């Protein structure tokens, strides 16, 4: 294991990169008069062909229920989404776009998704695999180490 200052320098370097990535999403959201969470929920809904539950969105974003509930409420108020009961579990509602919501999201999500894909495609296949592998490993290490905090 690398000693203290070197590790701390790498953590800081990584955090600056992560913050730059987050700023890219924040700027995209702001340009579309959205919060980052609203942008992410739109993105998830766009790719959820059969709809998705609020619980699934919360799990996917690792967000709290209140935050996602506020986004869902705003989107319902704007006429972008509907809620329908699930056949298997009436307590969980399936969230789907309305036609108005699809048109709204179509102006934002495909171009953002294309930008992400193009940014990834600028890497070699080996680099893509390494990026995902190392990000996954670091995330798992963080989950473990933060889970150890009492």
Please give a quick description of this structure.
With about 150 residues, this protein is mostly helical. It has 7 helices and 3 strands; from the N terminus they run ααβααββααα. The relative contact order is 0.09.
Measured between the Cα atoms of the first and last residue, the distance is 23 Å
What general form does the structure show?
globular
Strand order of the largest sheet: 1-3-2
- Main sheet, how many strands, which sense, barrel? 3 strands, antiparallel
Strand content: 5-15%
Total E-strand runs: 3
Helix and strand pattern: HHEHHEEHHH
Describe the protein:
- By secondary structure, the protein is mainly alpha-helical.
- It is globular and about 55 Å long.
- The protein has 7 helices and 3 strands; from the N terminus they run ααβααββααα.
- The longest helix is centred in the N-terminal third of the chain and has 28 residues, at 4-31.
- The protein starts with a helix and ends with a helix.
- Helix 3 (54-61) crosses helix 4.
- The mean pLDDT is 94.
- It is 70% helix and 8% strand.
- Strands 1-3-2 form a 3-stranded antiparallel β-sheet.
Furnish the topology, listing elements before pairings.
Layout: H1 4-31, H2 36-47, E1 52-53, H3 54-61, H4 65-77, E2 81-85, E3 93-97, H5 99-106, H6 109-121, H7 125-147
Antiparallel strand pairs: 1-3, 2-3
Helix pairs in contact: 3-4
Any descriptors?
single chain; 150 residues; mainly alpha; 7 helices; 3 strands; globular
């Amino acid at each position: 294991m690398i000693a203290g200052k070197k590790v701390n320098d790498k953590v800081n370097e990584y955090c600056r990169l992560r913050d730059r990535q987050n700023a890219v999403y924040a700027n995209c959201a702001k340009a579309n008069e959205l919060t980052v969470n609203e942008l992410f929920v739109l993105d998830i809904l766009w790719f959820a062909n059969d709809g998705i539950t609020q619980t699934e969105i919360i799990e996917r974003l690792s967000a709290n229920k209140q935050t996602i509930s506020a986004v869902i409420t705003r989107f319902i108020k704007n006429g972008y989404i509907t809620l329908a009961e699930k056949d298997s579990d009436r307590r969980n509602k399936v969230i789907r776009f309305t036609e108005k919501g699809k048109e709204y999201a179509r102006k934002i999500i495909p171009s953002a998704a294309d930008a992400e894909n193009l940014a990834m495609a600028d890497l070699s296949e080996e680099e893509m695999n390494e990026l995902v592998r190392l990000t996954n490993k670091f995330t798992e290490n963080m989950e473990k180490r933060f889970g150890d905090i009492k």
